Amino acid sequence: MSVSEIIDFYKPFENEKSIFVCNIPAGKLTEVDIYKFLYSRFSAFGLLYDIRIFGSNFEHASGQMAFPEADEKELTHENGTAANKHPDSYYAFVNFYSRADAANAREKLSGRLNVSGQALKIRFAARAASTRNSHQPLYYTKCYELADYYLGFNGWTMSVKSLKERISEGGSERGANVLCFECLVQLSIPRSGLTCSGCGSSVQYWDAKDICSRSASICRAKKQAYQFSVQDAFRKLLLVITGSGKVHVEVDTTINMQMDSPDPHEILPINIRDATVEEIDSTDEENAGDESKENIDLLSNVDENNRQILAELEAEGWD
């Protein structure tokens, strides 16, 4: 590593941090086998955010391999006929937290990765701008992983300063009550003497007719509020990696608290009491990409509207 680099606690969607690997033969290999192979090779160069593997099932009329979206359940050829669901080959995205680690891996492994005698093609990813610019805080377990890797297991501490409950006894017509928990945590870096706070809240609805519903909602609200507060604290942390490999920590003081305490009366009643905590966590992770794309599109529309409003005001002589 020859130059300094700043690593934040956001999902690494930049193309410079993502390696695209293609031409992976299917053969008798499963996705698990391919994942283990790629992880063993690329993790030697630095901490990985994730490895995403997809199957390519058919070719376009041009003869080029088609790379379908991961969430398509059934692939079809251009003429409408169903394609073979067993992939002819695989391709993968290997995502690093560090640009320098990704560049080093690409340089050292290019032309040197072979599967079943077939050379794999490696290059930087070329994602669309909407994906590259999405800025989502890391999931809290990923925050732990990243902090442990660069700061060490004892290089940071997290303490809960408050965990408050707010309950609204409304919604009698729906047979449900509102439950809200707010959490405040403090993240400390003892070696640097730095601290920063994070806050998070979670609102749940519980059925007054079900004696177990409220207890389950309390557990879910506490867990989610803590998770959100941890993510909020870590997103203010910056890891400065020097050219010599030393790690310095800074706190971004320009970032405010993530959210104020929500008013349960102003929140739409969404009944999720039948879902388990594990289901909610997995759904949050799976939908993160889609939500980010929608948010970016929304912000783009807002910016365009603002420009139109300013243009109209200037035309009217507004100063």
Describe this structure as you would to a colleague.
The strands form four sheets. A four-stranded antiparallel sheet has the order 3-4-2-7, with helices on one face. It has a three-stranded antiparallel sheet with strand order 1-11-12, with no helix packed on it. Strands 8-9-10 form a three-stranded antiparallel sheet. The longest helix is centred in the last third of the chain and has 39 residues, at about 275-315. Mean pLDDT is about 75; it is low at about 60-85, about 170-175 and about 260-310. The chain has helices at about 30-40, 100-110, 130, 140-150, 215-235, 275-315, and strands at about 5-10, 20-25, 50-55, 90-95, 115, 120, 120-125, 155-170, 175-190, 195-205, 235-240, 245-250. The chain is α+β, with helices and mostly antiparallel strands and about 325 residues long. The chain has six helices and twelve strands. The protein starts with a strand and ends with a helix. The chain is about 30% helix and about 25% strand.
